Amino acid sequence: MREEVNCPKNREKKKGMVAFDLDHTLLDHKKGAITPSSLEAIERLKENGYLVVLASGRNMYDRYSYDYLKEIAPHALVQMNGTKVLLDPLEKQEVLMHSVMSKDLLERLIRFGKEHHIALGTAIEDRDYFTEEEQVVQYDLNFVQESDRNFAPVEELLQEEVSALCYCGGVEGAEAIRKNFPELNVFPFSRDTGADLLEKGYSKAMGLEKIAEVYKIPREKTLAFGDSFNDEEMLLWANVGVAVGNAIPYIKEKADIVAKPIWEDGIYLTLKDLGLI
């Protein structure tokens, strides 16, 4: 189910739009923090009259992500790979578009996860709804060395508005989901540690296009940074698509520019070279 909201069109005029993925693009997972030079670049973009958009596969309002949203303070948000698009996400939270996964599809995914021992689910606010909870805990320990999940029965997801799910595991599980659910986009994480699961027809690019329409920003005034499979359409849609230097090889091939890695201030230096900051 897709809902679109007509938002007021009299927006403050912007010079252009710059969109950023979060994980491995702004967020350095080695340090568990957004790189300081990227935050400085974002502030300078705002000062210089550019619209800053955060475009993530995450639900930025869950307890693992909201602090990053506050730190970046974007003008607009494309979250869960384009299934929900918001303007002024920290204050007014104006919903521009919102897609909700059908209950039938959600129920089939939960059943599939249980039957095949595949960990999938999502976090909503302070609760974690997943099949195979032990696998999720081990996943956390492997990649962030800690786990403080607050699990609730995964069946309770059927009472929630769910736009996308997360799969935690290796390539084989992602392929099994893709094979059995052809109606889904299965976007592998950049390090093959899981995948985003959402209905086909949505993308970060679609979200950026709708935001640009509201702000009357022409496509030739758009720029996007990313690192992984779910960033491909966004980088191709933007007038200039930038792959950070630590991006997967596939995305580097699709990009117009390959920046230095984020821990070498790749975002800041690229924006400076382009004359935006």
TrEMBL record:
GO (cellular component) term, any one: cytosol
Domain of life: Bacteria
InterPro entries hit by this protein: Cof, HAD-like_sf, HAD-SF_hydro_IIB, HAD_sf
GO MF annotations in UniProt: magnesium ion binding; phosphatase activity
PANTHER family: PHOSPHATASE YKRA-RELATED, PHOSPHOSERINE PHOSPHATASE
UniProt name for this protein: Uncharacterized protein
Source species: Oribacterium sinus
